Predict the 3D structure of the following.
Amino acid sequence: MAITRDEARHIARLAHLEFSDAEYERITRQLNSILEFMEQLNRLDTSAIEPTAHVESGAEAFRDDVVRPSISRDEALANAPESEHGLFKVPRVIG
Amino acid sequence: MTGSAPGGIAAIRALVASGEASAVEICRAHLDRARAIDTQVRAFRHLDGEQALAAAEGIDRDRRAGKPLGPLAGVPVAIKDVLCVRGTPATCGSRILENFVPEYDATCVARLRQAGAVILGKTNMDEFAMGSSTENSAYEVTRNPWDLERVPGGSSGGSAAAVAAGEASVALGSDTGGSVRQPASFCGVAGMKPTYGRVSRFGLIAFASSLDQVGPFGRTTDDVARVLQVIAGHDPLDSTCSTLPVPDYPEEMRRGAKGMVIGVPREYFPKGLDSEIAGSVRAALETAEGLGARVEEISLPHTEYAIPAYYIVATAEASSNLARYDGIRYGRRAANAGDLTSLYVRTRSDGFGAEVKRRIMLGTYVLSSGYYDAYYLKGLKVRTLIRRDFETAFRKVDAIVTPTSPTAAFRLGEKLDDPLAMYLSDIFTVTINLAGLPGISIPCGLTKDRLPIGLQIIGRRFEEETVLRLAGALESGLAFNDSRPPLPEPSGEVR
């Protein structure tokens, strides 16, 4: 199941990445060699096997919904590349 | 206190508690060592002498005031740059986070502080913990203290090298597919990946959330046990962190190997495995038998499928975790990008390095419409088979012993242009992340080129104490800790 340069461009769009033509050439080749290596999984019949997305970690995921102190607005904005009026600033979205 | 490396936790804590040495003196000795040697080793990304000395002064003040001292009082610790330390930059080895200064401590860092540890600074790593050599750092290449022309392993190469070179007493790393154990093996120190859920991941910058776990490095198993004791246990800020009680690891560790049944999986000793590595691990197994353990050959039949399954699961999770780096809330933002989509694309394309982009692409592909079943779902099913291999084995044995890595430390640049060759260096470590098990690497010998060889011990879920017990027994039987890297000794007296 080799991927083409166009498919690589499609995946890059999904991932919000861009590459030069030379980089596309290289990354397509590398992805294909890795995917080819992954093909060996098809030797295994897994039709009756349940997937494991997460191992059991002995945790209790539920807790009481109690209000507790959190970081302040100033702290939350401290690392923002641009902020204004206590908000994250982004380029205009709606024209 | 004179001369060589100021030692492990027990020694340092005894000196500080008795007042024979102050925490400030011990801190200064490590800072001096780091300043003298780190121009060669490059273990640290960020050394914060001022903050470290202030913390050490606090410990000395507490002692003079007769206040109780924590279990790590005065112990100098290095922290991998993937963990948040309040007020200290956390780059994660990436340009995209070069200006990021966390507003809070990771839970494991907060617990180290509470226990009296002195945080020296942040250590170098492969970008977003993706790599096995620390060469993928966007900032600098860390060297192996045993041979400066070789890699320290990765991705926690800076933490492993800092401990091996005596720049820090102990360190924290993170392990997603071997990133604590493999560098521990390459640098001749002990390094542990706890059970998934044993240590809080709050404040750990995520790579693959179902595999990531924070783990300690130390020059001895005792040091690893003492750090684990402090960082393990429930944290309401991490919904995957276990509520199970934490045993007394340093105490359990001393119970010896007598009566233990050790499984040796034949798949981890393939034909063509480096004979020095195989020989050294086999010799350690004989030592274990001498200590009263029984050794049994076992089979983990799906081992050969672990690397492809791991790289599907890990890259899929990474592609989604790393979607947050968009130049809006933190980190670097591309200049003059135009509209919002261009801002995202430019920020990410300029900010991430080649290996990170490769893994995001791979992860996006295996999750994408039309390929999800063939790759991602297939990977999760094979993960089940690997988990079951271990469940079956652990019905018969108490611990499993393997080499940590198929080779000793390789040369700088040797695998940098061949991603697949680099991935294969994790072949003996990724399985336990997929299965969520605890594992440790301890040094078990040296090659004829005087490079450390690592031995991995794997245990049942939440049985770190069994892993530490065998590690502690083997360590005293093997006497590796007399071997030190060929670096200049620290000069003179502690002031």
User: Anything to note?
Assistant: Chain A has three helices and two strands.
